[in-house]
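Quick illustration for those who missed Monday's session on complexes.
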Amino acid sequence: MTHPQAALALKALADFWADMGLEEARVLQVPRAAGGARPAGPTRQTERAAAGTRPEPKRLNNNPIADARRLAAAASTLAELRAAIQQFDGCPLKKAAKNTVVCDGMFDADVMIVGEAPGGEEDAQGLPFVGRAGKLLDKMLATIGLSRQENVYITNLIYWRPPGNRDPSPAEMQVCAPFLTRQIELKKPKLLLTAGKFATQAMLGTDDGIMRLRGRKLLYRQEGLPAPVKCVPLLHPAYLLRRPEDKAKAWDDLRTVAAICDELGVKRDAAL
Ligand code: URA
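Prediction with uracil bound:
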């Protein structure tokens, strides 16, 4: 093992398995290289800076879903869309939230991850998947040469923390949906990964359980997209923290993701 990125991926894999009692991952092989700079994420600093100058949010009418649709359609870049979501007042969760949590990672990434909703740490930092589950997600991605610093874009179904981390309600998901579909239209990901039951069911419009759907090569369809997008549901990292014995399933699913990335020509940092 000579390549530093391969060493990092191996370390991530060892960490991924660590609480299963495996001290070292002895699976694998091989390095590859990639590069890229990271655009500024929606940090608390940028939100604070924006707060001083941004105009009052416009109430377009009394229908928040229609407002969300119009604001989303008016955004012609991901940065504009992020600003529009930050200004949107139509989701009641915003009142109790410290921050609007829109996205993290690379605007030009081919791989897009959709999670459920921000938790406490995400609400505090204004970024998705930065708590314990997010750290595990980063390790999972690193085992197959993916990361939010290089080649992944991360968002959620909803942009404000539900109190007490309760499940998002159908109404909350519905009001935020126009922003998610617009993110997909503007981003044009080659591969969508849904994290957990909620994101998977909402994105794929199914009631099937995550244990049935995880790791399957599915298609996400959306009006206006030139073609369906390949989609693989994953076990949610928060679930894996509670049930580390299911990490073997997650590892199988990650290898499926790696294989699809290679089929699609998605650049990975190191192939395990
Ligand atoms: N869980 C999610 O689904 N999203 C986050 O951003 C954090 C935890």
